[in-house]
Amino acid sequence: MARDEAQSVIDDVDAPARAGRRTSGGRTAVRLDGAEAHPVTVDQKAPAKRRVRVSRRGDDVRERVLKAALECFGAFGFEGTSTRAVAEQADVTHTLVLYHFRSKEQLWIATIDNALGRYSAEMEEHLAGADDTTAGALRTFIEQFIRMSARQPQIHRILTMESNQDTTRLNWVIENYLRRHFAKVRELIRAGQEQGLVRQCDPARLYYMIIGAGGTPFTVSTEYRALTGRDVFSETEILRNIAFLYELVFIDAP
Questions:
Q1: What does 14-71 look like in DSSP terms, one character per residue?
Q2: What number of other Cβ atoms are within 10 A of residue 56's Cβ?
Q3: 90, 198, 215, 221: which one has the fewest Cβ atoms less than 10 Å from its Cβ?
Q4: Max CA-CA distance within the chain?
Q5: Hey, is 247 helix, strand or coil?
Q6: Half-sphere exposure of 17 (CA within 13 A, CB side)
C-alpha cells in the first residue's frame, strides 16, 4: 500500500472517533471526567479486535510492532513512549504503526491485550494439567507466574507504573484481566487455608505478596545483580525463588 493510501485509510478509520460517534465495530469512546491526558477509546468490556483480513506479512509486522511496544512501554511507560519510537524499535515505518493500531492509546491496549491474553491462556493450560488438589494448583500458579515474569518482565513493569495512576488504561486492565485473576488466586489461597495447607492471613494480602515477590526481582534485575551478584533470569535463581515462595506460602513446604 502506498504511503498516501495508508494515510487515507488511517484518516477514514479515525474520523468516527473524532466525531464522537459509535464506530462500525460497536466500540464507544471511554472518557474520564478528570484531566487524564490520554484516555483510551475502547469499550471496557471488549478489547479492540481488527475485523479485516490481513496478509501474513501484515501479521508479521503487527507482531513486530507489539513486541517493540512491549519493550518501549515497559522501559519508558505510556507517557514516555511515542508511536515513532515504537516504529523505530520495530524497524518499520511510522505510517505502518498507525495503519495497524491507529493511535498510541490503541497500541497500548493491543500490546497489553496480546501479552495478558497469552499469559491467561498459558496459565489456564498449566492449571488444567496440575494435580487435582488445591495445593497443587496454587503451587502451579506460583511457579508459572514466576516463569512468566522471567520471560516478560515488561508486563510487571507496565502494570506497576499504571497502578500508581487512576486512568482508563488501568481500569481496562482491571476489568478485562486483573479482577478475574485476583478472584481465582484468592479462592485458591482460601481453599488452601481451609485445608490447613496455606498459612493463615488475609488472602488478598497474600495474593499481593506472591505477585510482588514473584515479579519484582525481574523488574529490577540490574539492581538485583548489582547487590546480590546473581542473575535473576538464570534457571538456578528462578528455582530458588520458586522454592522460597513455597516456603512463605505453605505450612509444610518440601
A1: HHHHHHTPPPTT-------SS--SS---S-TTS-----S---HHHHHHHHHHHHHHHH
A2: 7
A3: 221
A4: 66
A5: helix
A6: 19
Which run of H or E residues covers position 83? helix 83-90
d(C-alpha 214, C-alpha 253), whole Å: 17
- pLDDT tens per residue, range 107-147: 999 999 999 999 999 999 988 887 778 999 999 999 999 99
Output the nine-digit C-alpha cell for 16.
Answer: 468516527
Q: Are 30 and 39 in contact (CB under 8 A)?
A: yes
- Grid coordinates representing 74? 515497559
CB 171 within 8 A of CB 43: no
DSSP 115-141: HHHHHHHHHHHHHHTS-SSHHHHHHHH
Whole-angstrom Cα distance, residue 82 to residue 98? 11
Q: How far is CA 54 from CA 50, 63, 83, 106, 143, in A?
A: 9, 12, 21, 18, 36
C-alpha to C-alpha distance for 143 and 10, rounded to whole angstroms: 43
Q: What are phi and psi of 198, to 5 degrees?
A: -115, 145
Radius of gyration (C-alpha) of the chain in whole angstroms: 20
What is the amino acid identity at position 149? Answer: S
- SS3 state at 198: strand
- Asked if 156 and 216 touch (Cβ cutoff 8 Å), the reply is yes
In contact, 66 and 112? CB cutoff 8 Å: no
Are the beta carbons of 104 and 69 closer than 8 angstroms?
Answer: no
pLDDT-based confidence at 17, cuts 50/70/90?
Answer: very low
pLDDT in tens, 142-156: 999 999 999 999 999
pTM summary value: 0.75
